């Protein structure tokens, strides 16, 4: 296996007295799509929050490109190459598609992100999701849910991530647009960006990823090649019991 790009090592996380993660060992390699599945409350969002600096964790517990980043301020973690497509998309309403995207471009400038030759630009994004070019002057609240999700992905990509973290991309969207969005993932990973996909739809998670992890009550209960794990193994890891 190539060296992991992003990894966690015995990751623990708490909300006050409540321990939400118990020793998570997780990794994703460059260019890989890894899915994270599990029932409500399993700890998937908490894992994402721990990775992105929204929840304080010990420095060595999260590593990006061999560098310990656990607990760094969220903007430092973005600067080092982690960007998130948040659940619920959180776009700026009252602003057009392109203005929403320009906010991310400005943020990238503020963070002095390195401009690589293959950096994401508006042009490259519009090639990935052509509908966004057609709708570039449209206020985001007038878009369909799927189109809004494309804007949210675009905004994260303009932060030039080495790892893109996606929280429930498919939530509340029609199957057709979900397929369209998932079909774009290989174009994102082609240049080496890794994707972590938190997904409620197990079939979709399995189809779109090379490997998957299942979580239950703050622990990883299954990991393996997505094409190889059986429905029975997933059901047991998802619901627990023997
Ligand atoms: P969902 O699919 O519902 O988002 P999840 O797998 O992402 O579920 P988390 O949201 O990470 O699960 O929740 C993990 C545990 O941490 C749950 O027991 C939840 O109640 C608890 N939890 C989550 N956020 C907080 C918080 N802000 N304060 C206290 N406990 C929390």
Automatic annotation (TrEMBL):
Listed GO biological process terms: L-amino acid transport
Protein name: ABC transporter ATP-binding protein
Gene3D superfamilies: P-loop containing nucleotide triphosphate hydrolases
Pfam families per record: ABC_tran
Family stated for the protein in its record: Belongs to the ABC transporter superfamily.
InterPro entries: AAA+_ATPase, ABC_transporter-like_ATP-bd, ABC_transporter-like_CS, BCAA_Transport_ATP-bd_LivF, P-loop_NTPase
GO molecular function terms listed in the Swiss-Prot or TrEMBL record: ATP binding; ATP hydrolysis activity; branched-chain amino acid transmembrane transporter activity
Alphabetical UniProt keywords: Amino-acid transport, ATP-binding, Cell membrane, Membrane, Nucleotide-binding, Transport
Keyword set includes Mitochondrion: no
Domain named ABC transporter: residues: 6-242
